[in-house]
């Protein structure tokens, strides 16, 4: 089958245009997992099914805007990339305005600081560090998405834990689950099923139970350690946001940290380390780390602002992707989305945006006259484009870490050499800076950095830098 280039396909998937048509395909669609990926999938499916059921082990109707057990990473810093913000606005028109009215923050211009390898940069590069957009805590953002999705008349949540699939031959016909407060397994019939149960998804086991192969998994051991704390923020601080990226080098340990304003007049402050560099939960140790290992702005916040609550830690052993597109056999009427497909080193802020782009892939698939008696290969081909884009950016950067030992892509040395020069050039040249920012914020596919004209410009500027 003829397919567009990955860059063009990525541009279609990440478009900001809201689909106008509502093509009826199913009586009932079931989404398993009611977090970002599941909620976005439910929004898309509401255009195509009479009834959309979201099975989630946390009771979605009883949740507030706090951290919930099903998403333990919710108390860590969560940045929303501009591409994700664009998808939210696309699927929920007026989302940004609503988020701002509810307390999300846009830091005033000129109040952001960006440090690279300990040096303050006057002109921060585009990318997560410089993104002008809404910032908030993760539970706040998820609660807003949840409110919008649950307000759709044909979407209904069911509190329960999914345990497996229902199948008829090579076609998925529903989900088996245990309802909240019940010990019996119930079957929920469905014409289409989405697995959005996160990075620990057991879909492979559910497939195996029916003698279907499990999706092959690729991992990169990153051994990332996070610690995040909340602080009271003064009404009008000089510095609202500060990001510090220290790359590994002589006398330098790889560390990323940042603080951003969030709703409720607070800052959320992250310090991270790799491997044995592991920030703990102790508040004194956290403060010392801010003072000792990060730029002075971190120490200012940690010593002068009031700590609110506890320090929360999180360890992520690996980045991982499940390559559904490589499966020869797969049931019809089944897809996976979000972290259940791929989860990356969170320092690059790609997870929620990827989940939103997977929803866009689902919309492309369902609007494209799919043959529902066959596996959703066109969907997984689009998802591969999105996963490749995020994976290339995050794993290429992670391979530079001393404790990360592969797997290395073909041509790694040449790619690393070119990436180094592009990065240097981005510090000097607005056009290179802009293009690199488009890629790191998932507004463009990484192949945007490989066009001959761009490469000649970036490499020559980088070589002189
Ligand atoms: C420390 C950390 C920091 C991060 N920072 C960022 C960031 O800055 N920016 C960003 O974009 N992303 C970030 N991420 C990634 C982000 O959290 C995820 O990509 C995002 O939550 C999308 O995930 P998801 O919806 O696929 O899965 P999850 O959010 O993990 O949700 C899975 C859902 O499935 C439910 N579930 C699981 N099993 C079952 C079952 N059997 N039955 C019913 N329900 C079930 C769970 O309760 C949960 O609600 C970070 C992740 C971590 C770990």
Description:
Residues 161-364 form the FAD-binding domain. InterPro entries: FAD-bd, FAD/NAD-bd_sf. This is Hydroxylase. It holds the Pfam family FAD_binding_3. With 465 residues, the protein is α/β, with parallel strands linked by helices. It has 3 domains: 6-77 and 143-218 and 320-397, FAD/NAD(P)-binding domain, CATH 3.50.50.60; 105-136 and 221-318, 2-Layer Sandwich (D-Amino Acid Oxidase, Chain A, domain 2); 408-464, no CATH class. The chain is 33% helix and 25% strand. The protein has an 8-stranded mixed beta sheet with strand order 4-3-10-11-12-9-13-15, sandwiched between helices. A hairpin with a 2-residue loop joins β3 (112-116) and β4. α2 (36-45) packs parallel to α5, α2 (36-45) runs parallel beside α9 and α3 packs across α9 (351-366). The radius of gyration is 22 Å and the shape is globular. The chain starts with 5 loop residues before the first helix and ends with a helix. Mean pLDDT is 94; it is low at 124-131. Flavin-adenine dinucleotide binds next to α2, β2, β5, β13 and α9.
């Amino acid at each position: 089958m003829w397919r567009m280039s990955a860059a063009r396909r990525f541009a279609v998937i990440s478009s900001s245009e809201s689909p106008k048509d509502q093509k009826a395909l199913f009586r009932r669609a079931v989404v398993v997992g009611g977090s970002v990926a599941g909620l976005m999938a439910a929004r898309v499916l509401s255009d195509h099914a009479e009834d959309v059921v979201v099975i989630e082990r946390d009771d979605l109707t009883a949740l507030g805007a706090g951290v919930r057990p099903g998403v333990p990473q919710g108390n860590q810093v969560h940045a929303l990339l501009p591409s994700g913000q664009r998808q939210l606005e696309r699927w929920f028109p007026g989302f940004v305005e609503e988020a701002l009215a509810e307390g999300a923050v846009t830091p005033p211009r000129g109040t952001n600081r960006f440090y690279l390898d300990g040096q303050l940069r006057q002109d921060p590069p585009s990318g997560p560090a410089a993104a002008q957009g809404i910032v908030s805590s993760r539970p706040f953002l998820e609660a807003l998405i949840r409110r919008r999705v649950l307000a759709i008349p044909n979407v209904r949540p069911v509190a329960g834990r999914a345990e497996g699939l229902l199948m008829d031959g090579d076609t998925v016909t529903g989900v088996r689950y245990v309802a909240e407060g019940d010990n019996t397994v119930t079957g929920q019939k469905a014409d289409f099923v989405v697995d959005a149960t996160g990075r620990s998804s057991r879909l492979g086991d559910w497939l195996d139970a029916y003698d279907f192969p499990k999706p092959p998994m690729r991992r990169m051991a990153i051994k990332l350690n996070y610690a995040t704390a909340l602080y009271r923020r003064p009404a009008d601080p000089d510095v609202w946001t500060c990001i510090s990226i220290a790359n590994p080098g002589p006398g330098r340990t790889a560390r990323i940290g940042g603080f951003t304003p969030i709703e409720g007049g607070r800052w959320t402050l992250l310090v991270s380390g790799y491997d044995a560099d592991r920030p703990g939960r102790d508040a004194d140790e956290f403060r010392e780390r801010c003072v000792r290992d990060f730029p002075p702005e971190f120490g200012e916040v940690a010593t002068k602002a009031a700590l609110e609550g506890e320090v929360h830690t999180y360890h992520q052993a690996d980045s991982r992707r499940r390559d559904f597109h490589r499966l020869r056999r797969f049931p019809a009427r089944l897809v996976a989305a979000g972290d259940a497909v791929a989860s990356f080193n969170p320092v690059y802020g790609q997870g929620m945006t990827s989940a939103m782009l997977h929803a866009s892939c689902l919309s492309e698939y369902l609007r494209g006259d799919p043959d529902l008696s066959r596996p959703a290969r066109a969907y997984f081909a689009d998802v591969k484009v999105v996963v490749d884009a995020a994976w290339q950016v995050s794993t290429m950067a992670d391979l530079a870490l001393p404790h990360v030992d592969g797997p290395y892509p073909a041509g790694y040395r040449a790619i690393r050499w070119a990436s180094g020069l592009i990065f240097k050039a981005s510090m000097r040249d607005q056009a290179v800076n802009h293009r690199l920012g488009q890629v790191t914020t998932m507004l463009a596919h990484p192949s945007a950095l490989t066009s001959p004209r761009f490469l000649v410009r970036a490499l020559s500027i980088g070589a002189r830098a």
